[in-house]
Amino acid sequence: MVMKSKRIVAVSGGKGGTGKSFIAVNLAVLLAKSYRVVLIDLDVEAPNDYILLNTELDGGVDAYTMIPYIDYSKCIKCGECSRVCGSGAIIASREGLPYLLPRLCSGCRACYFICPTKAIKEARRVIGRIYTSSIRLNSTNLTLVTGVLNEGEEHVPPLVIATKERGLSIDADLYVVDTSAGTSNTVASALLNTDIVIAVTEPTPLGYHDLGMILELTKKLDIETWIVMNKVGLGDYSRHVELASKYNARIVAWIDYSHEVLDSYIKGIPIVVLNPDAQASNEIRNITELIEREVL
Amino acid sequence: MLEITVASGKGGVGKTTITASILITLASRGYDVIAVDADADAPNLHIALGIDRWDYIEDYSESEVAEIDQDKCIRCGSCMEVCSYKAIYLDDGVYKVNKLICEGCPTCRLVCPVDAIYMVRASTGVIRYTKTRYDFTLISARLEPGRPNSGKLVSREREYARGFAREDSIILIDAAAGIGCQVISSIAGSNATILVAEPTKASFNDLKRVYRVARHFMQPTALVINKYDLNEDMTHRLIKYADENNIYLLGLIPYDDTIPKSISLMKPVILAYPDSKASKALREISEKVVEIIKNWSEWYIKYRPKKPHPYKPIIIKPK
Questions:
Q1: Model's pTM, two decimal places?
Q2: What does the pLDDT look like over B292-308, one tens digit per residue?
Q3: Is A178 in CB contact (< 8 Å) with chain B?
Q4: Which residue among A79, A112, A263, B54 has the highest number of C-beta atoms inside a 10 angstrom radius?
């Protein structure tokens, strides 16, 4: 038997507020009618898919990173841990005693490996929570996995990685990954090993600039990228079209800036459910058909 | 010198538009103003201000990435096992580093039994600045896609700003979306934080998250509600939240298509469409910021949190 690799579609876009979560949620809801779908919200700093699906986050499990625990009875005050720490999280006193600043620790474990006397042990720090929710909309079922970063924590990639792993561990036909804004390695971690990236942009110079950055990232990651032009009517998109062709990225949907979309957003009901005949719903349906043909 | 940060948690709610209006208003009032765009992986303030040239550009390289010497590598896989970022992968029997993921910590180098891993400097991005036609200096940074989001880069930008600043300067920092390290570096050490929200559940939720971070750093906060007329019920809830939490209500901006139009023109709306509803609201908000600055001590004492929102890292000790 040939093991089919997982089918993963990621939704990203660079700029905030272009409609990433809107597209991810609606795609997942439509596809869930015919397939077992897991929607994974990796915008752990500002997760909103659960809000768009009008649900609450209950239960959940803690997500951890490593944090050093210094056994001062074994410490020989050599200062190696403080020198190796790239985040400035271990400060050596004048006598050479190491002090930990927990907030700055990235959990990389370099100090643990460098300590010559094994005075550093691995403790765990909770950086956030991962929630798994079963969503029922009309007669469709959907699993939502959400990562939520604890307020005050700075190191995002470990939670993104843990949330993604948790989502992908659930058996399904298709995984829809929703990323944060930006193009840093946090977003790269979310996009890694996905089959298609859907970059959601808006026809403004800001959308254009950030679309260029995300297309550069997906090119380097070597992932085929589709573009959704959202909020059509807001401005000129001719440069976006040129950019798309330069990067060989297909523009797969044109979604009008409309009150119908806003209405669904405010009501907390996905537009494909609230208003299946809306222009946006039709365009999103076209994307799902493309996913069925080319990804599933 | 006052440093004021504009943050929102959720992206795309109007931080940049609001920042640009306040900058221009303050500069036109004769204040010495310095702007910092602290969103290095989607920098937009320069576009909103129509800037296409820089007086100064400096390469910024803080991070390193791991490199594996394949001649030395004995294919033990220890590096892949210890990488917290899953940046090392196996490709046809060969261990490789994904440079778009690598965070630059030396952990893999430390565990390699044959010293096959060394660290190389990664090109991280650029810091640049320019004097704008609106009579203030803008400091901006741009990260290479796939580089770690960097609080250090924001700190570096802020150092530049402080270097330019006089005793009476106002530094305005346009933060990134989210609440992670870039945003924490934008908020920590500021004198006040202006929060921007729109009346949607998603924005309200993210606002609460960034507000608690701001309060942890003992920031007095002010709130701007953008597109307030799209959902008046939610706007009332936002106002109530501000009231209950001693957040100063800076103002409400109606939905107005002159804002996207002005963005397309790459010209701040208060100059492109000075008579529009949104411009009127933005001017009022900017005037209130002027008032805050004039009566700083009084405002600060009134809106400074009485106690910080606690941040207690939850640590589970080893057995």
A1: 0.94
A2: 999 999 999 999 998 88
A3: no
A4: A112
